[in-house]
Design brief:
binds adenosine-5'-triphosphate, binds magnesium ion, about 240 residues, alpha/beta, Rossmann fold, single chain
């Protein structure tokens, strides 16, 4: 599998915080992987996603990314413009250099993929939470990313909307076979078990576990390798 991205001992400090948001995080990500970031509130999941996207620079450590890597992120809180649903999707491709008509055509295609085509002309901010999240996915899809970064993609969604979004994530992450990779954060361990191939558990900005999903949900393995994480997954362990 070809390597898409590598972090070497990355430390991130954010203004005024009493400890680094991330401390010496090392991580290599290959095409075809679906990596879940888990850990308590404030453990550094969103910060790590921003480093992977390239919008958060480390104070120490190295970040290497493969040439031509295109990353798109769906943020924990969707930033929707006070404009139509279609404009929200078309703006990215337009800013990237497409003519407006072509950007809108791509935007409509993206909306079709997430089942929002009928709502293209609606003001984006009148959408329900689940619809807004699907719009955020459409925006990311329009960028045709090789690396999908999703920060708690189903937080605040009801169980049904949550499963709908999950199904879209699964479809998009698996498009083009193994050429793509997905990194997502989640507090839903059931979702982690369904979507991930690999799990990274963060505790106070440090990587405590980085393991295949089967190992992470195996009590004996976890007890032996990362007792600190056992409490965290207790609710879903057999
Ligand atoms: N803008 C900021 N300025 C200073 N400290 C910050 C800032 N943003 C986050 N932090 C701190 O960095 C650490 C990591 O935060 P981060 O948002 O990455 O955690 P998280 O795992 O995504 O949490 P959650 O599950 O609540 O989303 C926390 O201690 C947080 O307080
Ligand atoms: Mg977060």
């Amino acid at each position: 599998m070809s390597e898409l991205l590598r972090l070497q001992a990355v430390t991130v400090e954010l203004g005024g915080a009493r400890r680094p948001a991330l401390t010496e995080v090392s991580l290599a990500l290959s095409a075809g992987e679906r990596l879940a970031l888990v850990g308590a509130n404030g453990s550094g999941k969103s910060t790590l996603l921003r480093v992977l996207l390239g919008v958060q620079a480390p104070v120490r450590g190295e970040v290497w990314r493969a040439g031509g890597l295109r990353a798109a992120m769906v943020f924990q809180h969707p930033h929707l413009l006070r404009a139509s649903v279609l404009t929200n999707v078309a703006l990215g491709p337009w800013l990237a250099g497409l003519r407006w008509a072509a950007a809108c055509a791509l935007g409509r295609q993206a909306l079709l993929r997430v089942g929002l085509e009928a709502l293209a002309e609606r003001p984006a901010r009148t959408l329900s939470g689940g619809q807004q999240q699907r719009l955020a996915l459409a925006r990311a899809w329009a960028q045709q990313p090789t690396l999908w970064l999703l920060d708690e993609p189903t937080a605040n969604l009801d169980p049904r909307a949550s499963l709908e979004v999950e199904a879209l994530v699964q479809t998009f992450a698996c498009e083009q076979g193994a050429a793509r990779a997905l990194v997502f954060s989640s507090h839903h361990l059931g979702q982690v078990a369904r979507l991930a191939t690999r799990v990274l558990y963060l505790h106070e900005g440090r990587v405590v576990v980085d393991a295949p999903v089967q190992a992470f949900f195996d009590r004996a393995w976890l007890q032996a390798h990362a007792p600190l994480a056992v409490d965290f997954v207790r609710e879903v362990l057999p």
